[in-house]
Amino acid sequence: MASHKIKIAARVRPRLEHEIDDEGIQVTHTSGAPSCISVPNPRDVSQIFNFPLSSCYDQNSTQEDIFERDVRPLIDVVYSGVTVTIFAYGVTSSGKTHTMQGTKAQPGVIPRVVEAMFEQKASLQRSSVELSVSYMEIYKDEVYDLLVNRETAPKLPVRENDAGQVFVANLTSFPIKSMEEFDRIYSQASRHRSVGATNLNRTSSRSHAVLTLEVMMTDSTAQRTLTGKMNLVDLAGSENNKLTGNDSTRMAESAAINKSLSVLGQVVHALNQGASRIPYRNSKLTRILQDALGGSSVGLLICNIAPGTKFRQDTLNTLNFAVRTKNVENRPVINERDNRPQPKPHFAAVQPAPAKLAPAVLHAIPVHASGSSAVATTTSNIAAVAGPSRGQRPSKVPRPSAVGPGLLPPLYSRPSSRPSSRPSIPEKMEPVTQLTDKEIDERIARAVEAEVARRLKEREEQERVEQARLQQEKENLALQEKQAVENVKAEPKLPSGVLSPLLKRHRDLDEELRARLAELEQKYERGNKELQLADVLSPASRKKTGRAYVALARAHSEKGDLDVALELYRKAETYVPDNVKLRERVLEIEWAVKNGKDFVPSPKKQRKVRGKKRKVAVERICEEATSLGQSSIGQSSLDDGEDGERGFGDGEGATIKVKEEYEGQTTIHETPAKRTRC
Ligand SMILES: Nc1ncnc2c1ncn2[C@@H]1O[C@H](COP(=O)(O)OP(=O)(O)OP(=O)(O)O)[C@@H](O)[C@H]1O
Question: Which of 13, 304, 315, 318 to mutate to test the pocket of ligand 1 (most atoms within 8 A of CB)?
Fold first, then answer.
């Protein structure tokens, strides 16, 4: 499919009264070359920027010049069923409204287009042609209908139909039969447009205005309808608030205007970059102009330029935008509808249907647009709304909903992204067009019968399985009950009085066990305390404490007080848990206590006491001894010479002083601390 680049025209308006113009902006026409507009750099006037554009109009150009050269050729394009969008772009006060709307004396593009369309209509013999008009403005990023009372006009939503076409919902469209009728409607609607006075323009447009002329051509012989549209867009001008002297209201308007124009620039930039995402949705303006920018319409951009020196930078901005826009490619489509009666599609025989069935068949017909651009051919059924049509898009900008060009089969429509509620058909089924109504009805009857039979069988099978399951459950329950009864019967009965002694013994055991547990708990608690204490002592202190306990235990065992001795040995064990000899001693005494035997400790070996004496944990051990309730004991000597390997101590000839209290008497035991013998 042929692509169409947006055509760019630039028009310099005449100097206004009190405007300083250095005549720096020049338009040159050279035969055989594109016309060119030259603008001096505002920071260095010796530097000139040249912008070659296909159409450049100087200050002396007329409304007629522009219309005849660039606009009239597009009337044919509209009448071929294509959407055309012409938009005027430029800084505020650059002459956009003058170019598009003009005055009574100098009518602009809009009235001239309407006139030309009526002329074209009159020239068409075979077709019935209907013209209609709609008019809206985008004010502060909201859409308003200009054909209704502006005071009560609601904000209109911008929507997208199933075919991916953007449109303004609930926008009024008036049929127009004559130029006079249009003038009446248009002049009234123009009064509704938001206009305000700024320092730069007494009648500055505060909104973007979009006037759409739709022409619907029905050829009854060929049984087809072509729908062409002409969107005429008068953009609000970008504003420099320093120059406009805007108040707060104007500032808010200005911000909305500048933002939407900025998005327009971003859209153009993204299109030129071939970006995967084009930010159309970032403003209502670009959303509505989506079809004109990288879409399926033919476009003409008229860049209006103000000659005043104060606008020089804006002029450069406008022309830079023009240069970028001229690279944007559209793929225009013809909007045609086939009115021939179509075989009624049957739900059981059609391919998965689109969300909305087209009321007519769509065909691809080659069309040659007049003017500079050849219009490619494709088909689309376009909703009769003010929004631009959308069809095949430029390959540079991939979009998921693009419709394939030209070669569409009959009954083709854009596949819906929504899941179809219609039943799918078997592949082997013949196309509906080859079946008579009777055949289709027979097929349906057969299919329904088969389906009913299948469902009945399925239900019967389900019921059978359910009944079998219930029966099985019932049987299982009965079996369980029977077994329970038999178990009760089988239990042996004891003669009376047999259980009494057993129960008594059980109670005795219980008490014994409880006492034993209490004792164990006590021991555990004590042991725990000892362990905690042993944990915080240094290894040397642990040994010394252990040795002191051993000495004390030995003294008690010699006295025959084995219980206390055992307790003290056990304490000693918590400080020196790895001492094997100590462990043996504990076991020996435990055995003696348990069996009521005497314990004879091994004879102690006397050692030389040398070096200074050490005092180890005496106070604490005394407390222990007191708490154990032992009697006063005399000096206890400890034998460390029996087995150096198995004994413990630090090898020095230290002594341990142990103070004990019993029945008011205090006794101090002094024992050698080195290699304490257990
Ligand atoms: N080609 C022209 N010949 C004579 N006067 C012109 C021409 N173009 C613009 N003017 C005058 O310049 C002034 C500003 O023009 P216009 O209102 O069309 O600018 P604009 O770009 O639409 O401004 P805004 O963006 O603020 O609406 C108007 O008084 C208009 O009549």
Answer: 13
Report how far residue 500's alpha carbon sits from residue 321's, in angstroms, rounded to the nearest whole number: 111
**CA-based max dimension of the chain:** 146
Q: Write the pLDDT tens digit of every residue in 235-258.
A: 988 766 565 555 666 677 778 888
Check the annotation: does 92 bind a ligand.
yes
90 is annotated as contributing to ligand binding: yes
Judged against a pLDDT cut of 50, whether residue 570 lies above it is answered with yes
Residue of 59, 60, 97 best suited for mutating to test ligand 1, as the one with most atoms within 8 Å of CB: 97
Dihedral sign for Cα atoms in the order 410, 416, 421, 423: positive
Nearest-CA residue for ligand 1 atom 9 is: 95
95 in a known ligand binding site = yes
In angstroms, the CA 191 to CA 183 distance is: 12
Q: What are residue 483's DSSP bridge partners?
A: none
Does the annotation list 94 as a binding residue?
Answer: yes
Q: What is the three-class DSSP state of 175?
A: strand
Cα angle vertex 28, ends 23, 30, to 5°? 165
* 209 within 8 A of 136, measured Cβ to Cβ: yes
Q: Residues with Cβ within 6 A of ligand 1?
A: 13-14, 16, 90, 92-98, 201, 203-205, 236-237, 304
Find the mean pLDDT for residues 123-130: 82
Give the range among 166-170, 453-457, 580-584, 599-603 with minimum mean pLDDT: 599-603
Length of the chain: 678
Per-chain mean pLDDT for the chain? 73
Q: Does 27 count as an annotated binding residue?
A: no
Q: List, in sequence order, every residue forming a beta bridge with 196; answer none if it has no partner.
A: 204
Q: What are the C-alpha distances in Å from 232 to residues 100, 517, 592?
A: 8, 102, 120
What is the DSSP secondary-structure string of 347-404?
TTTSPSPPSS--SSB--------SSS-PPP-------SSSSPP-----TTS--TTPPP
User: What is the CA(91)–ligand 1 centre distance, in A?
Assistant: 10
Structure tokens at 8: 């760019």
User: Atom of ligand 1 at shortest distance to CA of 16?
Assistant: 12
Q: Give all strands (DSSP E) within 223-321, no chain letters.
A: 224-234, 298-305
The DSSP secondary-structure symbol of 226 reads E
Q: Work out the number of other CB atoms within 10 angstroms of the CB of residue 670.
A: 17
- Closest-lying ligand 1 atom to the alpha carbon of residue 202: 29
How much distance in Å is there from the Cα of 262 to the middle of ligand 1? Answer: 22
Determine whether the annotation assigns residue 286 to a binding site.
no
**ipTM exceeding the 0.85 mark:** yes
Helix (H, G, I), strand (E, B) or coil at 514: helix
Which tokens hold the place of 388?
Answer: 């631009």
- Alpha carbons 661 and 668: distance in angstroms, whole number: 9
Residues 470, 476: Cα–Cα separation, whole Å: 10
